[in-house]
Amino acid sequence: MTPPLTGPFGRTVCAMVTPFTDDGRLDLDAAQALADRLVGEGRCDGLVLNGTTGEAPTTSDFEKSDLIRAVRDAVAGRARVTAGVGTNDTRHTVELARAAEAAGADGLLVVTPYYSRPPQDDVARHFLTVADAVGLPVMLYDIPGRTGTRIEVDTMLRLAEHPRVAGVKDCSFDLLGSAKVIARTDLLYYSGAEELNLPLRAVGAAGYVSTVANAAGALLAAALDAFDAGAPEEAVRHHQRALPLVELMMSSGLPGTVTAKALLTALGLPGGGPVRAPLRVAGAEWGAELRKAYEEAVGAPGL
């Protein structure tokens, strides 16, 4: 069943992997097949392309635009397509944002500038410059574990005043800070850590942006559906069923991109296969372990 579209980014959103051929080229046919499955069986009403899970650091600007166009055509309006455009260079980020808009993206995911660790005023100016340069809604990506810099609460409150700053992908692991911003703004908050999908929803988050949804989107969606239907005990059951798979995919020492592709390969689903260096493909034993955890969580492959 195709979910109804929700807001500018969706509600049950997959951080989609970027498929490559065996010789390392962008595999647009596999990307379209994966996107179609995610929107259908995976119950995703939004897709984030060219993000962390999508191996954005190792894809070219042209590949990013080609992927947006291909996925947009595959989902044909059935899901929001949000394009990751964040870099540590404001000028380059603006260029990617404009290219994503031209390629047909519905929204933009913009990460905090990394490595240079700018002060908060400069962090805010970076995001505002991007939002001023395009006509699309912007989702801020707060992931200090990778960037080295938080988007502080006061900065979030300032950015929320911009008409095109519409959402946050929250990987801060700061439930108090997130709850404060949710309470004081209209920003659409999205859990970027699957173990916090239900806790953040309980304090007003809009949904999630999930790597695990590449394979187990329907299970993650079921937890939010039950909560929204006023069945919190059922929501907790779905949430708890997913946790062993979440832990294996996201906290096992391998990047989520690698484990997601290994699981898709083990299940014979579109989107598995190679990753680009410096990442390396997980061994076959990982695929078997991931498949076992998946089947214990959701049942037969493909459900």
Automatic annotation (TrEMBL):
Keywords: Amino-acid biosynthesis, Cytoplasm, Diaminopimelate biosynthesis, Lyase, Lysine biosynthesis, Schiff base. SUPFAM superfamilies: Aldolase. Signal peptide: none annotated. GO terms for cellular component: cytosol. It holds the Pfam family DHDPS. It catalyses: L-aspartate 4-semialdehyde + pyruvate = (2S,4S)-4-hydroxy-2,3,4,5-tetrahydrodipicolinate + H2O + H(+). The record marks T52, Y115 as: Part of a proton relay during catalysis. The keyword Lipoprotein does not apply. Pyruvate binds at T53, V209. Gene3D superfamilies: Aldolase class I (3.20.20.70). GO terms for molecular function: 4-hydroxy-tetrahydrodipicolinate synthase activity. It is found in: Cytoplasm. PROSITE patterns: DHDPS_1, DHDPS_2. The keyword Cytoplasm applies. It comes from the Bacteria. Its EC number is 4.3.3.7. InterPro entries: Aldolase_TIM, DapA, DapA-like, Schiff_base-form_aldolases_AS, Schiff_base-form_aldolases_CS. The active site is at Y141 (proton donor/acceptor), K169 (schiff-base intermediate with substrate). One of its GO terms (biological process) is lysine biosynthetic process via diaminopimelate. Pathway: Amino-acid biosynthesis; L-lysine biosynthesis via DAP pathway; (S)-tetrahydrodipicolinate from L-aspartate: step 3/4. Homotetramer; dimer of dimers. Belongs to the DapA family. Catalyzes the condensation of (S)-aspartate-beta-semialdehyde [(S)-ASA] and pyruvate to 4-hydroxy-tetrahydrodipicolinate (HTPA). This is 4-hydroxy-tetrahydrodipicolinate synthase. It comes from Streptomyces caatingaensis. The lineage of its organism: Bacteria, Bacillati, Actinomycetota, Actinomycetes, Kitasatosporales.
